[in-house]
């Protein structure tokens, strides 16, 4: 019994010495509000300058599903314009919404996955040319009858939680071969 107490005492003292030396080491974080990156709070997000893509051609359009039963429209992404810029974290794409009568509504948009926002940079003028917006603004994604496609693009195709390495090829694969379902990404 005496040997166990001595062993326990020696173990306890050794633990205190080792722990104390670990705490005494300089970590670079001596104050509660210090950071290894002192400029972390000063970081200001900035969007990269963009150029409008070529107007979409029918052979480059890839149709995607929208959770909107009875929709009178079909939704397409121009695979040639789809891109992700790591520097500003924006997925940019040309969207084509086609009515049952064959009329196309075309827009070049951007989506910020982390902020859950979108921006329309330009609209198609019906003559195969983009017209830039005068002052495009970031707006929150809304789940409405008319904008449901953006929510689905964000949730299932462009910003899916499992899509860590976001590339145009992976986003196209998500559209072609089936979107990520919530049960597959850990949400129930």
Structural summary, described in words:
The chain has helices at 2-24, 148-158, 168-177; strands spanning 61-64, 73-85, 90-99, 104-112, 117-124, 130-132, 139-140. With 188 residues, the protein is α+β, with helices and mostly antiparallel strands. β5 (117-124) and β6 form a beta hairpin. The protein is globular and about 50 Å long. The chain starts with a helix and ends in an 11-residue tail after the last helix. The model is unreliable at 6-11, 16-29 and 181-188 (pLDDT under 50).
Detail the poorly predicted runs: 6-11, 16-29, 181-188
Number of strands: 7
| Largest beta-sheet details | 7 strands, antiparallel
Topology as a string of helices (H) and strands (E): HEEEEEEEHH
Radius of gyration from CA coordinates: 26 Å
- Percentage of β-strand residues: 25-35%
Annotation field: number of helices? 3
Taking the alpha carbons of the first and last residues, their distance comes to 54 Å
Give the overall shape: globular
Helix content: 10-25%
The overall pLDDT, averaged over residues, is: 78
Structure class: alpha+beta
């Amino acid at each position: 019994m005496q040997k166990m107490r001595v062993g326990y005492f020696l173990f306890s003292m050794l633990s205190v010495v080792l722990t104390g030396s670990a705490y005494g080491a300089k970590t670079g974080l001596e104050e509660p509000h210090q950071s290894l990156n002192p400029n972390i709070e000063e970081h200001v997000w900035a969007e990269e300058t963009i150029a409008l893509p070529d107007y979409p051609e029918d052979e480059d359009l890839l149709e995607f599903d929208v959770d909107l039963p009875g929709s009178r429209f079909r939704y397409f992404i121009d695979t040639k314009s789809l891109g992700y810029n790591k520097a500003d974290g924006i997925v940019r794409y040309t969207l084509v919404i086609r009515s049952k009568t064959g009329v196309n509504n075309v827009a070049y948009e951007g989506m910020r996955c982390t902020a859950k926002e979108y921006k329309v940079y330009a609209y198609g003028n019906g003559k195969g040319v983009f017209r830039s917006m005068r002052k495009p603004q970031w707006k929150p994604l809304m789940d409405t009858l008319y904008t449901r496609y953006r929510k689905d693009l964000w949730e299932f195709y462009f910003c899916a939680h499992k899509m860590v390495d976001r590339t145009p090829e992976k986003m196209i694969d998500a559209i072609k071969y089936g979107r990520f379902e919530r049960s597959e990404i850990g949400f129930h």
